[in-house]
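Regression test attached.
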Amino acid sequence: MELNNAKGTTDFSGATMAKRKQLINMLESVFKLYSYEELDTPIIERYDVLTYKYGDDAPILNEIFKLKDQGDRDLCLRYDLTVPFSRFIGMNTTLKMPYKRFAVGKVYRDGPVKLGRTREFIQCDFDMVGSKKIDCEIEVLSILFRAFDKIGIDINIEINNVIFLKALIRYCGIPDQDIPKFVSIIDKVKKISKKQFETELVEQGFDKNKVDELIQKLNFKTNKEKFGFLTKILTDDENIKLNEFKLLLDAFGDKNLVFNLGLARGFNYYTGPVFEVYDNSKTISSSLAGGGRFDEMIGNYLDGKREFPAVGGSFGLEPIMVLIEKLDDQIVNENKLFIIPINNYIKSLEIAEQFRDSGINTGIDLTGRNVGKNMDYANSKKYEYVIVIGENELSSNKFKLKNMETGEEREVSIKQAIKILK
Amino acid sequence: MELNNAKGTTDFSGATMAKRKQLINMLESVFKLYSYEELDTPIIERYDVLTYKYGDDAPILNEIFKLKDQGDRDLCLRYDLTVPFSRFIGMNTTLKMPYKRFAVGKVYRDGPVKLGRTREFIQCDFDMVGSKKIDCEIEVLSILFRAFDKIGIDINIEINNVIFLKALIRYCGIPDQDIPKFVSIIDKVKKISKKQFETELVEQGFDKNKVDELIQKLNFKTNKEKFGFLTKILTDDENIKLNEFKLLLDAFGDKNLVFNLGLARGFNYYTGPVFEVYDNSKTISSSLAGGGRFDEMIGNYLDGKREFPAVGGSFGLEPIMVLIEKLDDQIVNENKLFIIPINNYIKSLEIAEQFRDSGINTGIDLTGRNVGKNMDYANSKKYEYVIVIGENELSSNKFKLKNMETGEEREVSIKQAIKILK
C-alpha cells in the first residue's frame, strides 16, 4: 500500500495551519462586525438538489464527486457554498429578511489538479438575501476593504455592472446568442494582449470594425468618459442603475475602487454590480476575492415562487495565504512557554497549570529526556521562553526564565514570570 | 424535486451555530494552552489507506461512504480523525516528537440514523505521539478537567487500565479467545442490572462461579480494595503500571476521578489507561468525552517499522451541546447595535464603521423600510441596542441609544455610545 493522500488533497499542519486558521478567524470576526451570522451546511448533499438548475450537459456536472448511501440514494459532495445556501433559504422561508450569513467550508471539484488548483479547497463566502438596494453592495465592499486592511494587504477593487457590459455589447451589434462566447473572450483581456484579443475576436467571426469600437470603449481612461458614453446607450431603467453605481463609487472616493467596463465575472450568474479584488503589489495576479449581485439565482432555484435578491462576496483563501506567507510580521507564535521538569513532573505540572490559568500557552516535557534534547525540541517548536525546574528551583521559588531568542536568563518567581509572559 | 438535506445530515444556523462555534473555539483555546497544534487533514482519503488495517469483514467497512475520482481511483470519506492522523504521522516521520495535535472536523458513517446518531458529525480530538510515560495521561486528564470547567459542566471521569481488566478476566479463568465477547458484556453493566448481567454471562456459557467472583471484584467499593486485589494477580511488569496508575490518581486527589475496574472502552484499540467523562448532573447518560492510551495502533498501521506510543482524548460535541443548550447564561449575543438610517444610508454607514472600528458588531438597515419594521427585525435578531439616525441626529450629533431589553433611551454622542457598547 502506498501511504498517500487522495489526489488533489493536502494536509495542513504546524505554522502553515496556524496562519490559515488566524486568517479564517480574522475574516469571521469581520463578518460578525457587520452582523453576518454563521451557517454550516453539510458537505454531502442530494444529487438531484445540487444539480437541479443545470442541464445534463453543464460542465460542472463532470466535476461533481458522486456517491450513494446504504439506501441507494444519489448523493454528491458540494462544489460550492452558494447552492447549499440557496437550498437552506428555500427550506427556511420564514427567515427574517435580510438574512445575512457567512460560511467557511470545504468544497470539492473532481477536475484537473495543478498549481493552485486542488480537488478539496476552502471557500469563504458572505452573502445577504432580501434587498435590492445598492446599500448592500456598499456594505459588501466595506467588508472587503476592512478585511484586507486587517490582513495588511494593499488592494484595489475592480468593479463593473453586468448591465453596462451587456449594453456595450448590444451597442456593438453583437447578437444576443453570441454574448456568452463574446464575454468569455473579454474575460481574457487581462491575460492576453490587446492585439491577441482583437485577433481572437475576429477569428471567432466577429466584425473587425465592431471589435475595434468595443476595444476603444473598453479603454476609456476616465470615469467621466465611461459615464458619458453609457448614459447615451443605456435605457431609462438602466440609467437609474448607473446613477446608483455613481453613488457607490462616490461612497468610496478615497479607496482604490476602479470602474472596469470590461470586468465580466460569471456573466450568467450575476445580475448587477460585480467586483474583483487584486493585490496592489502585483505579487499575485489572480483575484484575491470577488463577488456581486445575483438577484435571480436563488429564486430560479426555488421555482421562482418568490424573489430572493442577493449580494455577496467570496474570499480566495489560497492566494491570500500565498501573500500572508510573505508577510513575516503577520506570524503569531502560539507557543509561549516550555517547562522542563527534572524528575518532578507532578510539581512542575502544577506550575504549568498556573501559567495556563493566566491564558499562557504552555508546554511541558512528557518524555523525561534530558535538558539538551528538550531545549532542541523547544527551539524547533518556536517556544519563546523555557524554564527548567529542578529541586533547587522548587525549594527557593526562584526560576530561570530563558528567552529563547536572545538567550538571556532572568531569575524570577512564578508570579513575576506570569506577569512577563502575559 | 424534494428540497431537502441528504439523509442523516443537518444545517446549523443562528444561535445554535453560534453556540457550537463558541464551544469549538473554547476547546481549541484549551488545546493551545497545552501546546497542541492544529492539524487539518482532507475529508476524502484513499480507500486502501483508510481500510488498510481492517479485514474485509470488519463492521466499519459497511459504514464507509465510497466514491471514485475521474481517474477511477477508489476513495472514501473519513469515518474518524485517528486513521488520517496515523497516515499523516506515517508520511511525516521527521516530525519532532512528541507531536501533539488537535483536530476538529466532520466525519462520515453510513449507518442507521436515529436520535443522536447522524451520518455527518463533528469529532473533536487531541492526541500526542512519542512518549510512553504516564505524564501524558495526566496531561490529557488535565485538559479534560480544564475544558469542562471552562464550559461550566460539572463532570466526573471514570478511569481504568485495560491491563487490569484483562488480568481480572484471566484470573476468572476465561480463555483468551473469549475475552472480546466477555468484555462486550462487561461494557453493558452500566445499562443492565447486575442480575441481567450475571444471567447473560451464564447464558453465553461462562461458569457461574467465575462470573460471581468477577462481579464481586468489579464491585469493590474502595481503591484500597481494588489495589490490594490487583497487586496479587498482576505480573511484575503490570504492577509497575499499577504504581503509575496510583500516581495518576493521587495527582487528581481533589477532582472527581473514579477508578472503575469495569470500564472497557474500545478494548482492541487501547493498550493502557482508558477514561470516560460523565455529566455529574446525570442530565445526559452517555459519555461527554473519552480517550486513552493506544501504543500499538499507529505503529501497526505503519507496518510496525517504528514504535509510536500515543495517548489522546475526544470530545463529544453533540452531548455537550445538549447540556449547553440548557445553560442559558452560556449564550453570548453577538449582535450588539443596529442602526436605522432615515434616507441617509451613506452618512449612517460612516457612523456604523466607527462602531466597527472599535470592535462593536453593528448591523445597519439595507432595505430602506420603515422604523417599525426595522425595530421588529432588530428585536428578532436580538440586537442589544438600536440607534435611529435622521437629519436632526446628524446635525446635532445627539443620538438616542435605545436599550432593546429595557426600552430605555439615552441621548448620547457617537463617542459616548462607543464607550457604552464596548
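Expected vs. actual: identical. The radius of gyration of chain B is 28 Å.
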